[in-house]
């Protein structure tokens, strides 16, 4: 990590990474070893994670059906108990244990702790229930944990001043965290090699896309399902301090350090 370009990133201070539930179990040990090496070299990673498939699995065990409206889980109080238990409990602690297992240092918390992620109901809460949108993130808590030498591992549960909990899509939460901590880059780690489109019958990965191109890809149906909240979160945060969002496959060797070194991997979303 003596590369000049990594040094430049260090000067930026930190980067936010979102780990999707689709990929968490498949992340190889080398992913966490790379993360540990970055941490040892002075880079400050912040992790926001999902866990949608695990939530659906736990709900199914309880005989509760999972329902989604435009990619957002319909969240009753009963569902919210399972969401919190899964995200802030088993998934969060599994990530912390994997980082520690690679010799890194991590502290897991949810957006409820210290009122880290403040939220309010989404506009269509009559349809989706206790789903939140972010109104604020206490960046000083994240920076404090980083200054202590730990990687913050954040579960996307929000809270409001009255103490009500909210289920927040993990891509949305990661984008908001990246904006509030003024991360220059957000890395979205998922189970596909980037944003793909079909050209002459072949699926290709787009090396970079602009906000205008994303709108066209959603319109044409080439971006659908779980990719939609990712690109929407990316578009929201690159309006502010985040200058680039990169979507990559977590199984790619040394993916984090390669992206931070400026290697062209996955799909880079840029403002224009
Ligand atoms: N244009 C696209 N390129 C790549 N993947 C896409 C695209 N449109 C939709 N997807 C889907 O988005 C999925 C990633 O979203 P999701 O399953 O929610 O992942 P995560 O758990 O990482 O948030 C991919 O596995 C793929 O099925
Ligand atoms: C409101 C909403 O839909 N919340 C998500 C939170 C987890 C998530 O987003 O996980 P992935 O990143 O693995 O999809 C859910 O309940 O599934």
UniProtKB/TrEMBL annotation:
- Site positions for Transition state stabilizer: 18, 230
Major location category of this protein = cytoplasm
Going by the UniProt record, its keywords in alphabetical order are: Amino-acid biosynthesis, Arginine biosynthesis, ATP-binding, Cytoplasm, Kinase, Nucleotide-binding, Transferase
Q: In which pathway does it act?
A: Amino-acid biosynthesis; L-arginine biosynthesis; N(2)-acetyl-L-ornithine from L-glutamate: step 2/4
Instruction: List, alphabetically, the Gene3D superfamilies matched.
Output: Acetylglutamate kinase-like (3.40.1160.10)
What Enzyme Commission number(s) appear in the record?
Answer: 2.7.2.8
- The answer to whether the entry has keyword Lyase is no
Q: Has the keyword Kinase been applied to this entry?
A: yes
Where, in this chain's numbering, is substrate bound?
A: 51-52, 73, 167
Q: Which reaction does it catalyse?
A: N-acetyl-L-glutamate + ATP = N-acetyl-L-glutamyl 5-phosphate + ADP
Which residues are in the Aspartate/glutamate/uridylate kinase domain? Answer: 14-249
Named from the GO MF annotations, one term is:
kinase activity
Where is the protein localized?
A: Cytoplasm
Query: Top-level EC class, please?
Result: transferase
Name the InterPro entries for this protein. AceGlu_kinase-like_sf (IPR036393), AcgluKinase_fam (IPR004662), ArgB (IPR037528), Asp/Glu/Uridylate_kinase (IPR001048), Glu/AcGlu_kinase (IPR001057)
The record's comment on protein family reads: Belongs to the acetylglutamate kinase family. ArgB subfamily.
**NCBIfam families registered for this protein in UniProt:** argB
Q: What does this protein do?
A: Catalyzes the ATP-dependent phosphorylation of N-acetyl-L-glutamate.
Q: What is this protein called?
A: Acetylglutamate kinase
Organism the protein comes from: Paenibacillus borealis
């Amino acid at each position: 990590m003596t590369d000049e370009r990594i040094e430049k990133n260090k000067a930026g201070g930190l980067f936010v990474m979102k780990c999707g539930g689709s990929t968490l179990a498949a992340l190889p040990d080398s992913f966490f070893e790379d993360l540990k090496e970055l941490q040892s070299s002075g880079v400050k990673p912040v992790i926001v994670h999902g866990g949608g498939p695990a939530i659906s699995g736990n709900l199914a065990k309880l005989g509760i059906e999972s329902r989604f409206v435009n990619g957002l889980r319909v969240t009753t109080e009963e569902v919210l108990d399972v969401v919190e238990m899964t995200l802030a409990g088993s998934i969060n602690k599994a990530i912390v244990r994997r980082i520690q297992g690679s010799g890194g240092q991590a502290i897991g918390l949810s957006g409820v702790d210290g009122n880290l992620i403040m939220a309010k109901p989404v506009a269509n809460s009559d349809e989706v229930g206790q789903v939140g949108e972010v109104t604020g993130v206490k960046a000083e808590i994240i920076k404090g944990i980083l200054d202590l030498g730990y990687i913050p591992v954040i579960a996307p549960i929000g809270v409001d001043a009255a103490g009500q909990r909210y289920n927040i899509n993990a891509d949305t939460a990661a984008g908001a965290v990246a904006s509030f901590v003024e991360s220059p880059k957000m890395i979205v780690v998922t189970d596909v090699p980037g944003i793909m489109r079909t050209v002459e019958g072949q699926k290709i990965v787009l090396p970079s896309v602009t906000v205008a191109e994303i709108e066209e890809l959603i319109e044409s149906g080439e971006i659908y399902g779980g990719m939609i909240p990712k690109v929407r979160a990316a578009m929201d945060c690159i309006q502010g301090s985040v200058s680039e969002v990169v979507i990559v496959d977590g199984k790619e060797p040394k993916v984090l350090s390669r992206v931070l070194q400026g290697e062209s991997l996955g799909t880079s979303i840029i403002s224009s």
